[in-house]
Write a structure and sequence with these properties.
Chain lengths: 569, 180
């Protein structure tokens, strides 16, 4: 049957099971928006800025495991998507981004709102298309979704000229894709599996470092099984948080720049590092020469190009993490590593996270701890980027693979609010908490309007310290407290929320924390809490940039009462 | 680690923008291309790209893997260690008055190069061969005054029955397939 290009887009979205998309209209998209009401199954969320559409699709994808869909018009609409697409690219998030384009005859003529968005996004997409004829639209969309969600996931861009949406073509949605150049590794190479198993069985001080690949692959159970069989301690990267339950006896938190001292000590002493679905980002490795200096390294990853990219590896295994761990488990012997685990526990006692101090000030770490208690660790927690993000990673205790959503690779301030919006839409049954900083929050504050228009019940906790906190921390520690361009005047966030018809409270004292969280949770709809936290609190431990992980700095203040990171469950 | 010249062969979809994706990848990751040559392959819709990259073995392996990730790139091989036939072509316009003309023609003959254009005060020479051969001839011609040089990048092929794609059927059996 013949359909217009716009209808073909909608039909294809439905064929891909898309039930929500985040977008912002514009002139060249009008044929699409004109058609959209014919397809009530597709819920369209109108964001207030295109960047938020991409971040919302990103948050939705991370919360559900499905492909996130966003759309923007040509020119400025398309360029506003760029940061969101880059964010999805660096964190391997499945996304299909549609951009409108000027009519074909106008392409290349610097027409009104024309931009070469395919060219601009070339280095930050997994693949991209310019749909130059209506007849190829269905095939392109089919391929785009397939590429976005398979293998190592990533964003795919489809640029569609306005007249391609208007023209008619025969529509039938293809059953299969034909992409001869696209390879998806599945199981690992048997010889390498054997080599890996031998090393694991013989290791005295083995350590697993697990990343987001475990979550993408849905391999949490397999990871747990492996860790338990061979009694191997597990640390997770920032994006791997939740892939291994943090109340598990073998869980030792996150290493790296703001990682736990004991996780970094474990990395320093391990004789066999088993890296699973992670890519040795510099925030995890610190100075490469000081990274796991005594260890042989096994690297399991879906993407062959990740192997040996940053760190040289003794046993590379290319394949889907779940399949590889299953195959590997058959070759593993049960083990104990009693001394090694005892050693780690000792380090955990010696290097606890700092928390409650004699000072009666309102500490962000305290708030996050309270948030954990109040939600029972069962919420989806989304963060912006900065100090609050690290405190959340350190002090909330994550038990589920899909419970922590944060911008890792790109470190995108402003990610939090739109991503939380997307996550809540994807997981309406879950409590979704946004922990944000006053700086990060203001980068996409306009999305409060979207929360209201679509009644998206995100609970917002702002750690308001009146600074661009993480940058101020660097100025504090490495630039002699020369606080240039980091003091930040903020509006009264509660009044701002009220202007958007969102209720909120400001909290200045410790006793008010728990009631405020309860009030927010009980409210049917979005709610904002403005926590006025200690302005110059720093994130510790910290590995100075360029140093080895083992050179981590701990909280220098004196009145610390130790608080080993342990679940109360 | 020492850098050396590596020859990569990529079999890619014959679509607009594919070369752009490849070159953009080199730029973005800071890899240095010595030369790149593109043309049709023996299979319809597939082009063959020969890339000469200067780098350490580890860098070139990373180049190969990153190229292989591109959806439109069907296969990439590093054929550096193989016995290769490598060729490039150069057109050289050299100053040639009546006094030097015959000497230049003699040099071209020695290199089995062709004189493809004759003008009143210049000759244009076409030479094919590996890089060393072309360099040697250019060195000799420099003394006469080279006005213009146009060179292609290197194209290369592995000697014998083995194709660039060793994991596939050898070229011989492919050739046997009935023509469409």
């Amino acid at each position: 049957m013949k359909k217009t290009g716009a209808q073909i887009i909608c039909e294809s979205l439905i064929a891909e099971g898309v039930d929500v998309m985040f977008g912002f209209p514009g002139g060249v998209l009008l044929p699409f928006y004109d058609t959209l009401p014919q397809y009530p199954r597709i819920r369209h969320i109108l964001v207030r800025h295109e960047q938020a559409a991409a971040h919302a699709a990103d948050g939705y994808a991370r919360a559900t495991g499905k492909v996130g869909v966003c759309m923007a018009t040509s020119g400025p609409g398309a360029t506003n998507l760029v940061t969101g697409i880059a964010n999805a690219y660096l964190d391997s998030v499945p996304m299909v981004a549609f951009t409108g384009q000027v009519v074909r005859a106008q392409i290349g003529k610097d027409s009104f709102q024309e931009i070469d968005i395919t060219g601009i996004t070339l280095p930050i997409t997994k693949h991209s298309y310019v749909a130059m004829d209506t007849a190829s639209l269905a095939r392109i969309i089919k391929e785009a979704f397939y590429i976005a969600r398979t293998g190592r996931p990533g964003p795919v861009l489809i640029d569609i000229p306005k007249d391609v949406m208007q023209e008619m073509a025969e529509f039938s949605y293809p059953d299969r894709v034909s992409l001869p150049g696209y390879k998806i590794p599945t199981s690992g190479h048997p010889t390498q599996l054997k080599n890996a198993a031998k090393l694991i069985n013989e290791a005295k001080r083995p350590l697993i470092i697990a990343g987001r690949g475990v979550i993408i692959s849905g391999a949490s159970d397999e990871l747990k099984q492996m860790a338990e069989t061979s009694q191997i301690p597990v640390i997770t990267t920032l994006l791997g948080i939740g892939c291994f339950p943090e109340h598990h006896i073998l869980s030792y938190g996150m290493p790296g720049m703001h990682g736990m001292g004991y996780a970094n000590k474990a990395l320093d002493e391990t004789d066999l590092l088993i890296a699973i679905g992670m890519r040795f980002d510099d925030r995890v490795t610190g100075k490469i020469s000081g990274f796991a200096p005594r260890a042989k390294i096994i690297h399991i990853d879906m993407d062959p190009a990740e192997i040996g990219k940053n760190v040289s590896v003794d046993v590379p295994i290319v394949g889907d993490v779940k399949a590889v761990l299953r195959a590997l488990h058959k070759l593993l012997e049960t083990n104990a590593h009693v001394d090694w685990i005892r050693q780690l526990d000792e380090w955990r006692q010696q290097h606890p996270l700092t928390d409650v101090r004699a000072s009666s000030g309102l500490l962000p770490q305290y708030i996050i701890r309270e948030l954990y208690e109040a939600t029972g660790g069962d919420a989806v927690v989304v963060t912006g980027v900065g100090q609050h993000q690290m405190w959340t990673a350190q002090h909330y205790i994550f038990h589920h693979p899909d419970s922590f959503i944060s911008s890792g690779g790109l470190g995108t301030m402003g990610f939090g609010l739109p991503a939380a919006m997307g996550a809540k839409i994807g997981r309406p049954e879950k409590a979704v908490w946004l922990v944000d900083g006053d700086g990060s929050f203001q980068m996409n504050i306009q999305e409060l309007a979207t929360l209201v228009q679509d009644n998206i019940a995100v609970k917002i906790a702002i750690m308001n310290n009146g600074y661009l906190g993480m940058v101020r921390q660097w100025q504090d520690l490495f630039y002699k407290k020369n606080y240039v361009a980091t003091p930040l005047s903020c509006p009264d966030f509660v009044k701002v929320a009220e202007a958007y018809c969102i209720p909120g409270v400001t909290v200045t004292r410790r006793e008010e924390v728990q009631p405020a969280i309860e009030q927010a949770a009980a409210h049917d709809g979005p709610f904002l809490i403005n926590f006025m936290v200690e302005p110059e609190e720093n994130v510790f431990p910290m590995v100075p940039p360029g140093a080895s992980n083992i050179e981590f700095i701990e909280e220098p203040k004196k009145e610390v009462t130790s608080w080993p990171r342990r679940s109360t469950l | 680690m020492a850098t050396t010249k590596h020859t990569l062969v990529a079999i890619v979809q014959d679509k607009p923008g594919v070369l752009n994706r490849m070159v953009s990848l080199f730029r973005r990751r800071g890899f240095n291309i010595d030369s790149i040559a593109v043309g049709h392959s023996e299979v319809a819709h597939l082009s063959r790209v020969t890339i000469v990259v200067n780098g350490t073995t580890a860098t070139v392996e990373q180049v190969r893997k990153q190229l292989d990730k591109l959806i439109d790139v069907a296969k990439v091989f590093d054929i550096t260690g193989e016995k290769l036939i490598g060729r490039e072509l150069a057109l050289v316009k050299v100053k040639a008055g009546s006094a030097t003309r015959s000497e230049i023609i003699e040099i071209a003959d020695i290199f089995r190069a062709n004189i493809v254009d004759v003008a009143s005060d210049s000759l244009t020479i076409e030479i094919t061969g590996d890089e060393d051969k072309i360099e040697s001839m250019l060195k000799l011609l420099n003394g006469f005054g080279v006005k213009e040089i146009a060179r292609t990048g290197r194209i290369a092929m592995v000697r014998g029955n083995i194709g660039a794609m060793p994991d596939e059927k050898p070229a011989k059996s492919r050739a046997k397939k009935p023509a469409a």
